[in-house]
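Worked Example 4.2. Consider the chain below.
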Amino acid sequence: MTSNEQHPSDEANPLRSLTLDQLRRRTSMKWRTYPADVLPLWVAEMDLPLAAPVVRAVTEAMELGDTGYPVGTAYAEALAAFAGKRWGWDDLAVERTAIVPDVMLGVVEMLKLVTGPGDPVIVNPPVYPPFYEFVTHLDRRVVEAPLGADLRIDLGVLEEAFRRAVTGGGRAAYLLCSPHNPTGTVHTADELATVAALAERYGVRVVADEIHAPVVTAPGARFVPYLSVPGAERGLALMSASKGWNLAGLKAALALAGPGAAADLARMPEEVGHGPSHVGVLAHTAALRDGTAWLDAVLTGIDENRRLLTRLLAEHLPGVVHRPGEATYLAWLDCRPLDLGDDPADVFLRRGRVALSSGIPFGSGGAGHLRLNLATSPEVITEAVRRMAAAVD
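Applying the procedure from the previous section yields the following structure tokens:
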């Protein structure tokens, strides 16, 4: 595996490209949920223009009227090539992939394959809120194995959750968030190999949400695909270009199976493949195949913003505890020293007109915390922290 996720890029920082006036013309959730006087740093959308290869792919499809149904393995082949170059993972088997509508709907389909109604699904809170929402809606039971104080997987706690989950002989799954949202933790190869060994020991099936895999920003950090570690042969994973290239509105993701899970993936209903967008597949394929220079410029900008946030908090909100993550474009802030109650995001919205993600829906360990989106301009981050500081003066 390569140890350098990020490569130097000659491209300008895309996060500095758009003004607030331009961004406010957008009609997506990030920009239309709150009034115009609110700075939105909440939902995981990036404030930048799209990569040129993606724009070309979508524009050409429109000009050709190429808006039919998706087919073929070009997306999977592009991901396999990207994984080999980026992560040194040369064993992504295209024949053990399937196109799904998006990562979370793919998670639902994978959980359907390996669990039944009422079965437990283990998660590591604080964690992405849809893990709770989608699992519960699927009629599965969420079992928490909280992260440790260092915001890493507590392997002892995880093993105990596995043991409890399979007591009585039932089926269980572990929904792994890798890299972790909201903390930005990048799990190591040793940690993931231990997870795989524990999963095999207790008969727990691992489903890895790896949507943030391309977004590793800390120098020297490296993403390790779950299916690449020893013992993960029965694992399932979901990947896409959605987070790395800001393509949430162009629906398409890939489900991947280890060699021991190929038969499970083959049981996925044929109609699931009707959900992805053909144009989405074209966009994600172009991003993975031709968009790496753009991605590297973005990662450099995110890393600069993370360091900027650290400086600004130290200067204006020294009570806030911030452990800079290694991945994602999200920052997890512990605001409990400010005595703002369980939901500091609500205080900053009401008093400071800054929209942030409340920590409460992230599960155990989320109260008193919030999540801030770093994928914007340095000027917006600076103004947001200024407003937040004024809100608690």
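The mean pLDDT is 96. Residues 292-316 form the longest helix (25 residues). Compare this with Example 4.1 before moving on.
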